């Protein structure tokens, strides 16, 4: 494999990883703070993508408005989910699985009902719809934008987590929920806010990642599986972990698709299993 | 006052009958069912029985032992694939060969996957079992020359029993599956009511306590994981003739989550709970396919949600409570 292809795959992997990070960061935080593995998180991404398509393509508004709309829709659904359903399933894992999986089914089927079964074509902002030559091939500006957004958000979230009082509260809630409550902090409000933020980011990243991952009904499950692997590999509850995991998985997908096309998913699950056996909390994670 | 041990307590025949009466009634009902329903509904009932076997096998692992296995379809589909590959690709059709082979495949997968999965516990166990089954999905999809790829293998026939004094149809296959169901239920009943089964429930309640009592908890968990896998394999073998196809779908998260739902909706930790759960789910699926076919996932998702929110403990628990109230009311009067 020559240098050009290697570099191209690395860049592709990083841009994949950026979108995966956007999704996985929400999943990881929710898992860390609320003790809930939200299998509906991918569905939030998918709904965001469809809403964003409706706003930005079907109705013709600004792309970034679509991003906002997708995020808001997902955030709203997330709020309903959290307030309505999530109260009683803290750390009750098989019920979480059923509940969130059920929500995934419901959201997917509703999306089928509303938007139909034909996938929408990938889309992005008009200014980003250009490619420029890179190493003998053409590299799309949208991919670079996605990477920039992803890394930017990573930095913002990290700053939020490590340098602000809110972040400290969140981390405290992850480490010792009861103690945090004992300090007079309304942990359930914090949990709701974290959940809604995670949901918003998931929906927004559905629109941002639309040109990479498309707008299809399979997204709910497919991207969820990737996000789970990212969270497991990188570690739960930490932004750095989600970023590391996302980059690793993004690169594996990119190189895997190029070198061993059908085995990319196999490799990913293999990596997940190895991590679960060797370091269950993930590479940079805090054990739940 | 009589001396303890001076007269052994006799189990009267009447007591024995009362305990087994419900089961007998159900068996009789199931046996006469084909006479009461149209033949295409028999096919639905066959599916109920197959899924009941699958859910019961999961219940032994999840309900009795407390292991959250989210990849149980791997053994179901694995057995199905083995059977299908032998029939379709190698031309071996005799039921007496392909069925044990399928079940054996399920067992081998359970031996391997169980060993890997039991190195962790709790949510990580759930994730590992899940990942392993997804691994199997990608294997099933990838090796298309053997497994038929993402389309799977189709045109799978009814079992070739080696003698042909009857023909296969919905009714005869229903009875065929019913026999397996009764045998499996009986075996699983014996297992969970044995000292081994009691040990499993002890592990579910407190593994550390069982361990300090001297039980080899890992061995217990490993054993039931394999046993559960074998019974799931029985269901998998039976499903190849019922559906006529086997596809990666049979190994994946859809079936695993369905099995888990049936277990929980019916009532995990009892053996007959999942049977009821299977009947409920499959019948709801049938009716929704009649009236609102495209909305079945919506209904199913709704059932997942409603079960968690309102049916804690499953139908079995509510039935048992109802039974207690009724019998208490009877005894008071």
Radius of gyration of chain A: 18 Å
Strand order of the largest sheet of chain A: 1-2
> Per the principal axes of the C-alpha atoms, what is the gross shape of chain A?
globular
Which regions of chain A have little confidence, pLDDT < 50, spanning 5+ residues? none
Shape of chain B: globular
State the total count of DSSP E strands of chain B. 0
Helix fraction of chain A?
A: over 70%
Beta content of chain A comes to under 5%
Report the end-to-end length of chain B measured between terminal Cα atoms.
29 Å
Overall radius of gyration of chain B: 21 Å
The number of helical runs of chain A is 12
**Major sheet of chain B:** none
Describe the protein in words:
The complex is a heterodimer of chains A (288) and B (333). Chain A is mainly alpha-helical and 288 residues long. Chain A has 12 helices and 2 strands, in the order ααααββαααααααα. In chain A, strands 1-2 form a two-stranded antiparallel ribbon. In chain A, α2 crosses α10. The longest helix of chain A has 32 residues, at 3-34. The N and C termini of chain A lie far apart (41 Å). The model of chain A has no long low-confidence stretch (mean pLDDT 84). In chain B, α2 (39-64) packs across α12, α3 packs across α10 (217-243) and α11 packs parallel to α14 (314-332). The mean pLDDT of chain B is 87. The A-B interface holds A 37, 85, 88-89, 93-95, 97-99, 101-106, 108-110, 112-113, 221, 225, 228-229, 232, 262-263, 265-266, 269-270, 272-273, 276-277, 280, 288 and B 62, 68, 70, 116, 119-120, 122-124, 126-128, 131-132, 134-135, 138-139, 141-142, 253, 257, 260-261, 264, 294-295, 297-298, 300-305, 307-309.
């Amino acid at each position: 494999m020559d240098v050009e292809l290697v570099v191209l795959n690395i860049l592709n992997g990083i841009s994949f990883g950026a979108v995966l990070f956007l999704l996985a960061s929400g999943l990881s935080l929710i898992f860390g703070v609320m003790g809930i593995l939200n299998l509906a998180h991918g569905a939030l991404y998918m709904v965001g993508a469809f809403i964003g398509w409706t706003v930005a393509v079907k109705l013709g508004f600004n792309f970034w408005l679509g991003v906002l709309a997708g995020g808001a829709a997902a955030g709203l659904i997330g709020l309903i989910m959290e307030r309505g359903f999530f109260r009683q399933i803290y750390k009750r894992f098989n019920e979480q699985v059923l509940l969130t999986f059920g929500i995934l089914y419901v959201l997917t089927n509703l999306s089928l009902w509303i938007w139909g079964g034909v996938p929408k074509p990938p889309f992005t902002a008009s200014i980003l719809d250009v490619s420029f030559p890179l190493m003998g091939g053409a590299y799309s500006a949208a991919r670079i934008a996605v990477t920039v957004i992803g890394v930017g958000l990573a930095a913002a979230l990290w700053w939020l987590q490590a340098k602000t009082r809110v972040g400290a509260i969140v981390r405290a809630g992850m480490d010792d929920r009861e103690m945090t409550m004992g300090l007079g902090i309304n942990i359930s409000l914090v949990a709701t806010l974290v959940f809604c933020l995670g949901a918003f980011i998931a929906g927004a990243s559905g629109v941002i990642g639309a040109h990479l991952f498309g707008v299809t009904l399979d997204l709910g499950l497919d991207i969820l599986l990737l996000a789970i692997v990212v969270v497991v590999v990188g570690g739960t509850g930490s932004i750095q972990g989600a970023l590391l995991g996302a980059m690793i998985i993004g690169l594996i997908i990119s190189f895997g698709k190029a070198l061993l096309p059908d085995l990319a998913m196999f490799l990913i699950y293999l990596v997940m299993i190895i991590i679960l056996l060797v370091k269950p909390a993930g590479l940079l994670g805090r054990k739940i | 006052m009589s001396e303890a041990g001076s007269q052994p307590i006799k189990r009267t025949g009447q007591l024995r009958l009362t305990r087994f009466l419900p089961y007998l009634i159900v068996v009789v009902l199931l046996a006469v069912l084909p006479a009461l329903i149209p033949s295409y509904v028999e096919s639905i009932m066959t599916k109920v029985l197959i899924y009941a076997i699958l859910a019961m096998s999961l219940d032994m692992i999840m309900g009795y032992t407390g292991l959250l296995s989210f990849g149980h379809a791997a053994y179901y589909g694995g057995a199905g694939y083995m059977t299908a590959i032998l029939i379709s690709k190698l031309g071996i059709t005799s039921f007496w060969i392909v069925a044990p082979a399928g079940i054996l495949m399920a067992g081998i997968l359970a031996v391997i996957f169980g060993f890997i999965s039991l190195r962790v516990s709790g949510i990580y166990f759930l994730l590992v079992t899940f990942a392993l089954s997804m691994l199997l999905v990608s294997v099933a999809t990838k090796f298309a020359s053997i497994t038929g790829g993402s389309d799977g293998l189709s045109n799978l026939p009814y079992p070739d029993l080696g003698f042909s004094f009857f023909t296969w149809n919905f009714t005869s296959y229903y009875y065929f599956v019913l026999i397996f169901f009764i045998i499996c239920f009986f075996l699983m009943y014996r297992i969970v009511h044995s000292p081994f089964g009691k040990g499993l429930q002890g592990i579910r309640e407190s593994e550390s306590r069982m361990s300090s009592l001297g039980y080899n908890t890992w061995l217990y968990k490993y054993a039931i994981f394999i046993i559960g896998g074998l019974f799931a394999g029985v269901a998998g073998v039976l499903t190849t003739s019922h559906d006529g196809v086997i596809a990666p779908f049979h190994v994946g998260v859809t079936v695993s989550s369905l099995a888990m739902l049936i277990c929980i909706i019916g009532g995990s930790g009892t053996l007959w709970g999942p049977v009821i759960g299977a009947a409920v789910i499959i019948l709801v699926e049938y009716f929704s396919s009649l009236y609102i076919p495209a909305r079945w996932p919506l209904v199913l998702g709704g059932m997942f949600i409603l079960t968690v929110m309102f049916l804690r403990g499953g139908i079995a628990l509510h039935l048992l409570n109802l039974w207690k109230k009724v019998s208490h009311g009877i005894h008071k009067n």
